[in-house]
Structure formats: C-alpha cells, structure tokens
# Entry
Amino acid sequence: MSLSSYVTLGRSGLRVSPFTLGTMTFGEDNGWGSSPEDSKRILAAYLDRGGNSVDTANIYTNGHSEAIIGEHLGTNPAVRDRIVLGTKFYWNLHRGDPNGGGPSRKGIIGQLEASLRRLQTDYVDLYWMHNFDPLVPIEETLRALDDLVRAGKVRYVAFSDTPAWATARAAVLADVRGWTPIAALQVQYSLLERTSEGELVPMAQAMGMGVLPWGPLAGGFLSGKYASTARGPVDTTRTFVGSPTPAQYTVIDEVNAVAAEVGATAAAVALAWVQGRPGVSSTLVGARTMGQLDANLAALDLRLEPEQLARLDEVSRPALNFPAENNALYSRLARNGGATVDGVPTAMPAQLTSGPSW
# Structure
C-alpha cells in the first residue's frame, strides 16, 4: 500500500490517503513541536509521496500550524487544489470574547474566516467541529455549516470528539432538513484506547461516516520507546503523557513482541492495526522529525498475520459500556433461539436452558 492508495471517506465521494498528516506538531509554540522550516519539509515530503490529506485546527500552536501550512501553500499554489485540507473550529483564541469560539453561528463564521486567512486559501475541504457544546442548539451549528458549504467556503462537514448520541441526532437532523451531511468522525483510537468501539465506531459505520482515528500511538506509548523491562527515562519531550500503567505495559509488550517477529517498529505495528480496523478510512499520523514521518509511513507496507492480529485484539480488549457486551453475547441467541441460521450454529448459554433461578 502507498499514500496514493486512496480510499473514500465514509459514504462521501471524497478520496483521501490511508494516512492523513496531522499537524498538531507544526510550530514550536507549544514547547515540543517542529520549527516552521522542519514542518514545511515534513509537509512537502508527505505530499511528494502521494499523500493528499492534511489535518490541522485553529488551536494547534495557537494558529501557527495553520499559518505554516498557509505559507507552504502560498509558495506552492498548484498544490492547493489537489489536497484535501481540513481544519477545525471550537476553541476560543480570543481572551475576553465569549463569541470567539464554540459552535454558534457567529463563532463558526468568525473562526473560519480567521483560519482561511492563516491557511491562505478561500476554502477548506473538511471543516471539523472539534468538540461538543450542549448549550448551543445543534440546529444552529448545522445550518451555519450548511450555509458555508453553499457559499463555497467549505466542501464537507465533519465532527470530532463528539458523543455518539449527539452525532447521530445531528446526522438525522441534517438528513431531514436537507442540510450538508456529516461525512466523517475523528475519535481517539489505539490499542490502548478502544472504547470508541462501543458506540462511536458502530454509529459511524451505520450512518456512513468515515472514521479518522487520532492518537494511534497513544501519546508515544506504542512508539517502541516503552517496555515493562525498561522503565527508565524515555527520550521524549512530550512529558505530559506521563507513564504507562501496568495494564498498558501488557499491551505495549505484546506490540513490541509482534514488532520483533515481523521485523518492524512497534509504531508500524500499532498503526497497521488501527488502519485495518472496521470503519476506519484514514488514520491521523503526526511527526516532529523526518525520521518519525518515515517510521510512521513504513506501516503502509506492513501486513500482520491473522494470528498476530488476534493476539493484539485479545490483549487490548476493552471493557465497553452497557449494552455492548450484552449485545455481543445475546443478539444472535435472542434472534435464533439456539438454531442454525444462515449456516451459523448458536448454542444457548446455560443460564437460558437451566430454567429460572428463582
């Protein structure tokens, strides 16, 4: 596989690379990001290798990430129309201005205009709602986004970090009202964070939204820098991630073991696992250096054996909220009553065949 092995984003007609370049690391304003020069080199390398999907947000390095991308596009104008450029709104960059952020009509329009100036473009391909605000009517948000699409300033609308119930309600309202549909959903998803499998991923699949996982390396825990046998200081400037828990080390060690078996990095194994999950369209990968970009993109050529995938699935199996586990156990049994249907036999559990316990 390569970055030019494009996939459709959910049920939309938009085609994106299997790995989307995340740019939260663009700019040194956060104390651990890349310099503008290195950021532009990383962006150019990603595009040169066939990548076409770039993700940023107004809050990333307080707008500097967008500005760095805009400077690259400004000096390479032919690039703009061939890439899928996405940015996000929600976070307020203007102290003392209660309308400077959020998902209100005024907030959305103001944030988009500022992002377009920084990005040096007159439209974005994907405009993401970065968070959920229960105080703002979702009808107001959706109508404002639809107006921006009709005005040609936004091509597709998407949600990030929003509850499944709120996203589903918004999708239905958009469909009923004839507004722009929600094309995709960004969720935190990795071998160390799989709880989105309970509600968010199934909802996205059922409603035709592409899933873009963020944090596939779990803040660096799955990068290969960590192991239960070597818990000394780790070479990372992102100190806010803390240290893995004993349960997380169990997963980390299994990822390291699979990596040794296939002759790849732990990061490549973790990324290959995420990108192969049901519902996933494109996985967000970030890099502070060219070396990190190369290491992440190596996952495109990695194919894990079914037995290795099964081991990773089992060691990282999450505890999901009710009724996910209940549904998984009883849904087929409840329909089929223990009979063989469509060639699949189902055995009734003892608690359903031994009679009442009272």
Summary: The mean pLDDT is 92. The longest helix spans residues 246-262. The chain has 13 helices and ten strands.
